[in-house]
Design a protein that fits this description.
By secondary structure, the protein is mainly alpha-helical. The protein is built from 38 helices and 9 strands.
Length: about 950
């Protein structure tokens, strides 16, 4: 059993292609890493489980290759015989082996990506951000204009706890150790003794991995999710966010005015973890308070650690270097009385700042491990801390020690500016239906005889706007409200407390899921008024953000916002927020509602219409993109997605969700994390300044896309929502039931306790189709739409669609994402899952349609993109996907057999555990699963 074998198999298939005749040096090194890890894992399996298990894994892998390549019926029968002959215990061990293949291959691949990233960034002007700045310079945009742009810019990745990361933190930690060892071998010329020690350490880590539970035994709590999310601040954000902004500042100084002042901290981290209540009853006011304390504790501990080291570094003696008068005053106020530091004013000043910061942490009720040398007064705001750090900076600069000021002190000052005392900006989110019920209860109690829910939209708007102006409280201490209403009010009170305690940046947004009308937004404004975050005079301390999710809601979004911005009482709130209104667009639910093609198109059209509305009202639009990891939930390359936005949709400000397994793949490694942050910044700059008004698509392009979308929508809805028995087919042919048994998140899989597709959350919907290798939400409806469109437009036909692909970034991105999804699909493997459907007629009817659409979609895609095979234009990804199949496919075959046993009521708990392990392994192999 060896990944070396897998790699050579893939090479054999590749050797016939002239473009792949000579592997690059990077590929050769990737193969070396894969062989090394594969050999160690193979040895581990043989040592721990025996030669029989080792040999069995090899037989399954080789047979699976034959079946995948040719849909070989003989190989299929042989595979079934092997799987049928295995005991449950053997099956679980086989699954673990193949799962770890996926995990270790991912590590090797990530290291190869880092290797290539370094090679691209070796020159001073290399890297995506440097290239974008060069484009800006070529376009005549000088550094001072860029500084002005960043002054009002906002780039905000928002981490969410969406349950698509199946790995435990324990296994992730071990994998990061393996990655670190590979990285050291890459960077350091090891002696023979060091190389032997490195090999032994790798074997130790792989063996530890093998003996570590892949699955969580208990369900995650919300605060567990918060703690997991905070790990990425240690890995990447706390250091790389400040470094990126400082590096950009340096680049702009090279061609601008040296005294232009410091660059604004445009990169701000956001979070939903601990604030997202939509469908998660476990996110309460107390949990939100705990979240804010954990966030603050993490950043305060970071500041204190940095100050501790800074104090040891700034050993500057007063008799050897001048200091400013304000620095001397700061040092004199220090509680540090050590005679050893009496002539070292910088150290004394740092000790004083340290003492005040520990007192601040105590006042904020956040845990820290360090203690000061004396007592200090707590800071009343983060600005006071910044002012003290600025004193150190100015003294060093004014006394010819600029190079010292540019070290740790500079990074700490930037970190304080980026993270404050709150670390990340926590959004609070709830479903509009919950807000509606809460307001209805409050209104009905305050107005006996009223039935708020019976009122029409216009009557609600009138009532709510009057309430916004009222100075009296709507909530009465003499009324006993329902638990749901009290829970909502408590959360809003906790948000007001957070503003008072940590500052207004702690919770700057209140998001309304499933926003369908003006009253949904006004209801939230009234609830915020009850806790003092909205004032009757028309001021708001928080952004009210509608989230438009379904196809119907996306189509209505511009009309709703047009009327909202025309409403005097709401417009005053927007103006009090700097005349900026954020709008969130939901990619996941719109896809589940209308399919991939229609979702992408309706999102694009909604943005065009919103840009027009906001320009007419002279309000700045900030779009918040609720993208998932998988293409079926709006995923795909971030840079391409931002650049493909319609003109005016970015406008210097953008927020994007980072979800589940995508967070760990992007931000577990500091170098990779920095590169991904640069990509977001560069794309925002390019979309805003270099083509802010990129030529609008020709009218015939828009018309054609409308027609394609309507045809794809009809095909998708026809299958998913209008085909009798489809719900039964879905629940039988996928792992949807079994996914619910995984302890990968705190949130339930469905909004309601039904089997209806409408009530199912988008994540398990997409996750289930990924597991059975159909990836249906990422392509279904495209093939038949293209065929029908060409039949209806014989004068334009395929040449016109090829022109669309060449000339229009939106259409190109749409097809590029579909290309990736279809490359990871396998109709041969999907056919085995279809056999789990007990009704043979239903199975043949639905899978037959899916199979035909799959072939049609691939054929149309390849024709439009002028490709002979999927991913032809992306050879790196093509090789990556092809390398995975030999150890990914067996997991699917085993999963089918285990599902069959589990659903036959096999009482052995190892069967369910085996299914859960296959879900983990398949997810690792596919990488972006949900």
């Amino acid at each position: 059993m060896s990944l070396q074998t897998i790699s050579s198999d893939a090479t054999e298939h590749r050797a016939n292609r002239p473009e792949d005749a000579q592997a690059t040096e990077a590929e050769a090194r990737l193969r070396d890493d894969i062989r090394l890890l594969g050999r160690i894992l193979g040895d581990t399996v043989r040592d721990q489980e025996g030669a029989d298990v080792f040999d069995l894994v090899e037989r399954i892998r080789q047979t699976s290759i034959r079946f995948h390549r040719d849909e070989d019926r003989l190989a299929r029968r042989e595979l079934e015989q092997i799987l049928d002959s295995m005991s449950t215990s053997e099956t679980v061990r086989i699954v673990r082996a193949f799962s770890y293949f996926s995990h270790l291959a991912n590590i090797a691949e990530d290291q190869n990506n880092i290797r290539q990233m370094r090679a691209r960034g070796a020159g001073k002007n290399s890297g995506v951000l440097a290239e974008t700045l060069a484009h800006a310079k070529a376009a005549g945009i000088d550094p001072d204009a860029l500084r002005s742009f960043f002054k009002s810019a906002l780039v905000s990745p928002v981490l969410t706890a969406h349950p698509t990361e199946v790995r435990r933190k324990s296994t992730m930690d071990r994998e990061m150790e393996v990655a670190g060892l590979l990285d050291r071998r890459e960077r350091v010329a090891l002696t023979a003794e060091e190389a032997d020690a490195s090999d032994e350490q790798l074997r130790r880590e792989v063996l530890t991995l093998w003996q570590t539970n892949l699955l969580r035994r208990t369900k995650l709590t919300v605060l567990d999710e918060v703690a997991n999310g905070l790990s990425f601040y240690d890995y990447t954000f706390l250091r790389e966010v400040p470094r990126l902004v400082n590096a950009l500042e340096d680049r702009l100084e090279e061609g601008g005015e040296q005294a232009a002042g410091e660059l604004a901290s445009f990169l701000r981290m956001g979070s939903w973890i601990g604030g997202d209540r939509d469908g998660n009853p476990f996110v309460t006011a107390d949990v939100m308070r705990g979240t804010l304390r954990l966030q603050s504790s993490r950043v305060m501990q970071f500041y204190l650690n940095e100050l501790h080291v800074l104090g040891s570094e700034l050993s500057i003696a007063a008799h050897l270097a001048d200091v400013s008068e304000e620095l001397r005053n700061l040092a004199e106020r220090s509680p540090d009385t050590s005679p050893h530091r009496s002539g070292e004013p910088y150290r004394l000043a740092v000790s004083g700042i340290y003492a005040r910061l520990t007192a601040t942490a105590e006042k904020l009720e956040v845990e820290i491990t360090r203690r000061p040398v004396g007592k200090g007064a707590p800071y009343t705001s983060v600005k006071e801390l910044q002012a003290d750090l600025d004193v150190l900076h100015r003294s060093l600069i004014s006394n010819n020690a600029r190079v010292i000021a540019r070290g740790r002190l500079r990074l700490l000052r930037r970190a304080v500016d980026c993270f404050g005392f709150h670390l990340a900006r926590l959004d609070i989110r709830q479903n509009s239906a919950v807000h509606e019920r809460t307001i209805a209860e409050l209104m009905d109690a305050a107005n006996p005889g009223m039935s708020y829910l019976a009122l029409g939209e216009d009557a609600r708007i009138s009532l709510l706007t009057n309430e916004l102006r009222s100075t009296r409280a709507l909530v009465s201490p003499f009324v006993k409200y329902s638990d749901e209403t009290m829970g909502e009010l408590n959360v809003f009170h906790a948000a007001a407390e957070a503003h008072a305690k940590f500052g207004s940046d702690a919770i700057p947004q209140c998001i309304i899921s499933m926003c369908k009308g003006m009253s949904d937004m006004l209801e939230v404004a009234v609830l915020l008024k009850e806790v003092g975050l909205v004032h009757p005079s028309g001021r708001s301390a928080i952004n009210i953000v509608p989230l438009f999710e379904t196809i119907e809601d996306l189509q209505a979004s511009s009309g709703i916002m047009d009327r909202m911005l025309s409403l005097h009482d709401y417009r005053r709130l927007v103006d009090s927020r700097g005349s900026v209104q954020e709008v969130m667009l939901g990619y996941s639910d719109s896809n589940k509602d209308g399919g991939f093609v229609t979702s992408g198109w309706e999102l694009y059209k909604a943005e065009i219409n919103l840009v027009e509305v906001f320009e007419r009202h002279h309000v700045r639009l900030r779009l918040f993109h609720g993208r998932g990891g998988s293409v079926g939930r709006g995923g795909g390359p971030s840079y391409d997605a931002i650049i493909a936005q319609p003109g005016g949709a970015v406008n210097g400000q953008i927020r994007i969700t980072e979800q589940g397994e995508i967070i760990s793949s992007k931000y577990s490694n500091a170098e990779v994390g920095r590169n991904n942050l640069e990509i977001l910044a560069a794309a925002t700059l390019e979309a805003s300044l270099l083509h802010p008004r990129q030529s609008a698509p020709r009218r015939e392009y828009l018309t054609a896309m409308d027609e394609l979308s309507n045809l794809a929508f009809k095909a998708y809805r026809g299958l998913v929502y209008e085909t009798e028995g489809f719900v039964d087919y879905f629940w039988s042919s996928t792992v949807i039931n079994e996914i619910a048994t995984l302890n990968i998140g705190s949130r339930p899989a469905s909004r309601k306790k039904t089997r209806a597709i409408e009530d199912l959350r988008a994540i398990p919907w997409v996750f289930s189709w990924a597991q059975c290798r159909l990836m249906l939400p990422g392509w279904y409806g495209f093939g038949s739409a293209v065929e029908q469109w060409i039949a209806e437009h014989p004068d334009k036909g395929m040449p016109f669609l090829k022109e669309l692909y060449r000339e229009w970034p939106f259409f190109r991105m749409l097809l590029s994402n579909m290309d990736m999804v279809l490359a990871k699909s396998s109709i041969a493997i999907a056919s085995r899952y279809a056999e789990l459907v007990p009704d043979e007629a239903l199975r043949e009817k639905i899978f037959g349609r899916i199979r035909r659409e799959w072939h049609a979609s691939i054929e149309s895609l390849l024709d439009i993109m002028a490709q002979d095979r999927l991913l032809q234009g992306n050879p790196l990804l093509e090789r990556s996907v092809r390398h995975r199949f030999p150890y990914l496919d067996p997991l699917n075959h085993v999963q089918v057999e285990l599902l069959r046993e589990h659903r036959a009521q096999n009482p052995d708990e190892q069967v369910l555990r085996g299914i859960q392990l296959t879900i983990n392994g398949i997810s690792a192999g596919l990488r972006n699963t949900g």
